[in-house]
Amino acid sequence: MTPTGNAFTEHAADLYRDGSRLAARTSALHRAKTHGRPVADVIAELAANRLAVPQHAVVADIGCGRGTSSRVLAERLGPQLLLCVDASAAMLSAARARISARTRGTHTTVVFLRADFHHMPLPDAACDLAVAAFCLYHAADPRPVIDEIARTLAPCGAAILVTKSADSYRALDCLVADAGLDVHATERPSLYAAAHSGNLADLTAPFLQVERVQHEEHRFAFTGLDHVADYLATSPKYDLPPGLAADPAAIAAALHAVLPDRPLVTTSTITYLTATRGAPA
Known about the structure:
This protein is an alpha/beta fold. The chain contains 11 helices and 8 strands. The protein has one domain: Rossmann fold. It has helices at residues 7-10, 12-15, 20-32, 39-50, 68-77, 89-103, 143-152, 170-178, 200-204, 225-232, 248-258; strands at residues 33-35, 58-62, 81-86, 109-114, 127-133, 153-164, 209-222, 264-276. It has an 8-stranded mixed sheet with strand order 1-7-8-6-5-2-3-4, with helices on both faces. Strand 3, helix 6 (89-103) and strand 4 (109-114) form a beta-alpha-beta unit. Helix 3 (20-32) runs antiparallel to helix 10, helix 4 packs across helix 5 (68-77) and helix 5 (68-77) packs parallel to helix 6 (89-103). The longest helix has 15 residues, at 89-103.
């Protein structure tokens, strides 16, 4: 990958062919996290505040991934219909395993839809609430995706869009560059460049009425180089030497050879945007 390439927009489909990379990435981050509310809990809280009668609602979780937010939405809201939408069959399989047992015996119907978020197989005005968390930055231009989300919302329906700051995990870029594993690490564009904390409201405003934008800093303390290597093995951002990519043990050995083993602290700002379609004139 060249210093100007962005794996999240150029190779998104390849990153989610199976769930192993995302599961390992999430595990490494969760073990490092020292501050910041669980994102799925915040989404569910925002959703509950937007829906007058959640039990009668149709809710879509767009780019649902492994179903973390979908599961919490099902448990906390108990909507009439929950639509889990993702382009990856592997992600939908993981989401189905995570969610189906939780909704068994409840009134919530869960439907899993494999679809590109540019063209979702949903009627106009079908949803009372749409959630799109950590997925918009996979589109080179997220505006058509937000337009498509707006199309699916009922009059006065709401959208909750979630992304990260462009400078997320910057300390890891510096470490990779300092170790000589990728001398261009600090020059590479953010994985979140297409839709980040700084531009999300501007991207959304042409299609939906932005009601609220809130930012929350999350902090991560990696215990040492082995822990850092667990995360770096899951990151598509860097151009690592042959034999290192996706191999935590090899990355750890390369880091130990040139850097002292000590904790590393880094941050990421999580941004939650709530918007409405608005009533027809």
